[in-house]
Amino acid sequence: MIKNLGARKLSKTGSHRRAMFSNMISSLLMHEKVTTTVPKAKELKRFAEKVITAAKKGNRTSVRSSLRGNRQACDKVLETIAPRYKERNGGYTRILKLGPRRGDATEMALVKLVQ
User: How do residues 95-104 score in pLDDT, each as one tens digit?
Assistant: First the structure.
């Protein structure tokens, strides 16, 4: 019996997770990199791949709902990021491990868009 195939819960409520990942995806698309913890980075990668793929297909509604009304991030992903990856079938992001955080030794990672 296979269990726990869904997304990580990260000790957050569903609404908190959705808001957090929406903000993180917006930051990733605007700045093309974001620093976070490793479990959050792995989940962020899943969501970012889906948003970029939807933008490549020209699905504005899906992109806007994922970015929760951040018009600047929506415009950037549709006008600059999606055309950049038109020949690429997935694998738009990369996770680089940075080592432990100074305060609590949590493993940190850098999520960035592949050039």
Answer: 999 999 999 9
